[in-house]
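Hi L.,

As promised, WD repeat-containing protein JIP5:
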Amino acid sequence: LHPSNDIVATGMINGRIQCHRYGLEGHEHLWTTRAFKKSCRGVSFTPDGFGIYGISRDRSIQLLDTETGKSIRVRETTHEAPINSLLVIDENIMASGDDQGVIKANMTFSKDHRTLLAVGGDGYLSTWDIRKPNVSAMSDQMEDELLSIALVKNGKKAVVGTQDGVLTLWSWGDWGDYNDRIMGHPNSIDAICKLDEDTICTGSSDGIIRLVSILPNQFHGVLGDHGEDMPIENLKLSHDKKYLVSSGHDDKLQFWDVAHLFQEEEEAAAAAQEEDLDENTEEKEEQSQEPEAESKEDADEDDDDGWGTDSDDEKEKKKRKKTQKKMKAEKKKDIRTTAFFADM
C-alpha cells in the first residue's frame, strides 16, 4: 500500500506487477508490467512513495517507478536462493530474505534501536544491528515455525505468530525465550498487522482475520473471513487507517472497513480530555469559594448545630455527576464496539 495515496501494488505468480487506485466509487487500473522471469514474491513502496521494490523467485530485486511502472534499477542474482521476503527500512536501506534462511520468512524494524528482527521456519527469532553484519541476538529453538512478527507497546514488546496457532510475546532485549503467549487460533498465524500500540489483527490459514488486544490479552472478534481453505498471507493497514487490506490464496485483494475502531479511540480520548477539563474547572470553583466560606465560618458555627453544610452537599452532587458521566461513556463505548462487530 502507498504511504500517502490510495494506491496498491500487487506481485503476481506470473512475474508481473500491477498497480491500482482504490476507492469506494471503484478501482482504477494504472499499469501492469512484466518485471520478472519467474514469480514475484513481494512488493513494497519506498518511504516517499515514488518507487516500488519487487522481489522474485529468480533471485533478482527490481525498483520500479510508481507513476509509470518502468524499471529504474535491477539487481540480478542478489541471493544464492530464491528471495521470499522484503522490508524497506528507509530511503537507503532495505532487507531481503531467501529460501535458505539468509534473513528469514518475516521481518520488522525498530527505528529507536536501529535493529532488524526476523523470524522463520527454523524456529528462531534473530536480531541484527543494521550497522553491523552479524547477528546481535538469537532466541532458543522454539520447536515451532515462527511465521509473522510485529512490534507493539511502543517497541517494548514483540508479537510473533507460529505454525501451531499461538501468539508469543517477547520483551525487548530478552530474546532467549518468550514470556507470555496467547492461545486461541485453531490454525497457523501467517500474518500480523499492528493497528495501534495495544491492538493487532491476525491472518490465519483458516481464512479468518481476528482482532486481538495485547496486555491485557484478549480476542475481540472477527474482522473478516476469506472463506474456508483460503489462507491469509498478507495484512496491511491503509495510510489513512480506513481499510485493512488482506490477500491470500483466492487471488483477491479484500478491503475491510476498520475506520470505526479508530473513531472509538478518538471519542474515548476526547471524553477523557473533557473529563479532565471538568475536574480542573471544579477545582478552580472550589478554590474560589474557600475564602468566602472561611470568612463566614465563625458566624455560621453557632447555627450549624452539628449538621452538614451546603458545600458538602454540592461536593456530593458533583461526585455523582462525574460518576454518571463515566458510566454513560463506558456504556456508549461498549454499544459501539458490539454494533461494529455485528455489522461485520
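Residues 265-297+307-343 form one domain.

Thanks again for sending the construct details.

K.
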